[in-house]
Amino acid sequence: MKVLLAPLGSRGDVQPQLVLGEELVRRGHDVTMAAPPNFRSWAEERRFRFIPVGEDINVFIRANSYMTEQHPVVALPGQIRLVREHLEREVRDMFAARHDHDIVVAAGISFAAKMVADQLGVPHVFCCYTLSALCSSAHPPVVAPVFGLPRLANRALWSLFKGTFQLTLGNKLNQLRRARGLRVDRSPWQAIHGTEVILAQDAVMGELPADVPGRNLHIPALVPRGDAAPLSDLLERFLRGASDGSAASAPLVYLGFGSMPTVDRARIVRIAVDLFETHGARVVLHSSHAEEVSVALPPGVFSVGDVDHRALFPRVDLIVHHGGAGTTAAALRSGVPQLVVPHIVDQFFHGRRIAELGVGPAPVPKPKLSSAAVAAALRDRFKYWAKAQRVRAAVQAEGGAARAADHLEALAASRR
After folding, report:
1. CATH fold of 233-394, please?
2. Start-to-end C-alpha separation, the chain
3. 60-81 tens-digit pLDDT
4. Which of 258, 387, 376 lies closest to 335 in space, CA to CA?
5. What is the mean pLDDT of residues 129-152?
6. CB of 315 within 8 A of CB of 336?
7. Burial profile 272-286: b = 16 or more Cβ within 10 angstroms, e = fewer
8. Alpha-carbon torsion angle 14, 16, 17, 20, nearest 10
9. Residue 295: per-residue pLDDT
10. What is the pLDDT of residue 412?
11. CATH 3.40.50.2000 domain residues, the chain
12. What's the CA gap between 92 and 149, in Å, rounded?
């Protein structure tokens, strides 16, 4: 079976597809990945053919970092504008390659993948990492995280969102489809995101509502298999307290927001420093874009780049993160309390759900994040510890890659 995986977005969109691709390759299938060019090495080291689509996503994210600190409703028009501006390039880059796939799997903000599938006459599957992105009256649209509304209001918000999508992106998508000799979609959002869907998110984050349209398969999160990558010797020494002479009992905090940039990074650094100097906690400060390379940090704050969350998270006392789907899945598997600081879209849903599960306090909006807020969550961590351990036992450590591969094999075979 020849499979095209087309995740368009940040690391959080791409990494789960790498996990799925590894499972498919293990079964003897040919895998091609179409993704932003900065993920080429990740794909090729797994023996995937690679198609670069769009620009380096890290450059793109940093250039538009202000949107990650706006209220999601305020940020939405700008986000739609950026997607619209990049649609033609996405389609051009996707169709610059030769395609002979048996099935196409899209993720993130991938739109051209559906055109490839339709041109080939093969199944198109949208792989979603959050329940909040599926249309249901049980929750508001992912782009409008206004929670606690009655079902009728949620349904109205979804109708408004789909209408907005049609006007701002749907008509443009249909123009591009016509240019490729493809029939127009009457409801482009539904055709891409609500026809054949894999929801790859742990059931503890919410069961699939009965009113979600289309054919839907709910599987555990797509998390890496096998042993975790070892931590560096310096980080190991810091975790043991060897770098600053701290007592082993000094609590450890992980503070990191994945690939989400920060407009005022100095403020985040001050929070980390204050947690050490005022509140007696040691901090592992994640830096996705090497922001702290030339910054002098006290001995109780250790700056790291990308590390394997499976190796690090169980070693800390509190995980402060952005609420991305992948980071949330890793944190749930660690059994450690969490404090979510949502930035965009699904992260607000995840932060709310973490609090509902009792594995952390209510989420803290990015503008209100302070060392005092983190210190309060750290003091209260034992309120959440037992529940975090129970949730850890409830989630499947190996994730849903095998079930997803089974489903894709059956779907591709049914169309032959």
Report:
1. Rossmann fold (3.40.50)
2. 11
3. 777 777 777 777 778 788 888 8
4. 387
5. 95
6. no
7. bbbbbeebebbbbbb
8. 160
9. 77
10. 94
11. 2-223+398-414, 233-394
12. 41
Would you state the structure tokens that stand for residue 136, as one six-digit string?
């249901």
On the question of pLDDT at 248 being above 90, the answer is no
Question: How far is Cα of residue 177 from the mean position of the Cα atoms in its chain?
Answer: 28
Q: What is the pLDDT of residues 177-189, one digit of tens each?
A: 999 999 999 999 9
CA 80 to chain centre: 19
The letter for the amino acid at 234 is: L
> Which residue bears the tokens 């029939």?
183
The tokens describing 139, both together, are 């929750």
Among residues 125, 128, 74, 119, which one has the least CA distance to residue 99? 119
| CATH 3.30.70.1130 is right for the domain spanning 2-223+398-414 | no
**Cβ contact 47:66 at 8 Å:** no
